[in-house]
Amino acid sequence: MSNNAVAAYNNAEMPLSKWTKAEILTHCGEKAEMLRNLTVAELRRELLENRGWHHTSSQYNRTDFFGIDELRLEEISAEEVAAIIAARKPRVHQQSPAVKLITAEISYTVWEGQFRNYQRPVDYTETVTYKSTDKLISTKNGGVKRLSSLKSVRVLSEEPLEETKPSVKDRLKKADRVKAAAPKSHTTRKEEPSR
């Protein structure tokens, strides 16, 4: 890092990536509480200005340094902060796709043989049923295959599968049934051996 870059750090000028929300708010003084609801990107956009560039790293990269824009900090008001917050895009919650029960005919290759020099590829074709969320499937010969590694997948049928999580009441009822079905332990008094 150059001597000028070190001096810039001492003057509260840093690369954009070094300006965290906490760092910006410490330089805001009494307006910090009002600006606390803004995101880091909004704070950087509104309050930082480019103050020049300096050489950094052992390769002497040219890095832009930013500092707090004092004039902008003085003139920003609570109404402007509210307008910035109101202009944010609303968060969109994506629903997970419906789970389906898929029956498909798959084909895959397995290398079989007793010794390394005598192995040969053997093609298998079978019908399997799996959920649309599964990434691995079990084959009839006891193996597990990744869906993305199969030679071919021909879908025979798809049925919607409703997966519902049991409610707390249902889980408690099940726990009570398990407790009731468990054998009761009988405690008996141990007789002390006679001397």
Descriptive overview:
The chain folds into 2 domains: about 5-85, no CATH class; about 100-160, no CATH class. The protein has 7 helices and 7 strands, in the order ααααββααβββββα. The chain has helices at about 5-10, 20-25, 30-35, 40-45, 70-75, 80-85, 170-180, and strands spanning about 50-55, 60-70, 100-110, 120-130, 135-140, 145, 150-160. The strands form 3 sheets. The protein has a 3-stranded antiparallel beta sheet, with no helix packed on it. The relative contact order is 0.10.
SSE blueprint and pairings:
Layout: H1 3-10, H2 21-26, H3 32-35, H4 40-47, E1 48-56, E2 61-68, H5 70-75, H6 78-86, E3 100-112, E4 120-131, E5 136-138, E6 144-146, E7 152-160, H7 168-181
Antiparallel strand pairs: 1-2, 3-4, 3-7, 5-6
**Which residues sit in consecutive blocks of at least 5 with pLDDT less than 50?**
none
The tally of helices reads 7
Number of strands: 7
Query: What is the total domain count?
Result: 2
Our measurement of the CA-to-CA distance between the termini, rounded to an integer number of angstroms, reads: 87 Å
Shape: elongated
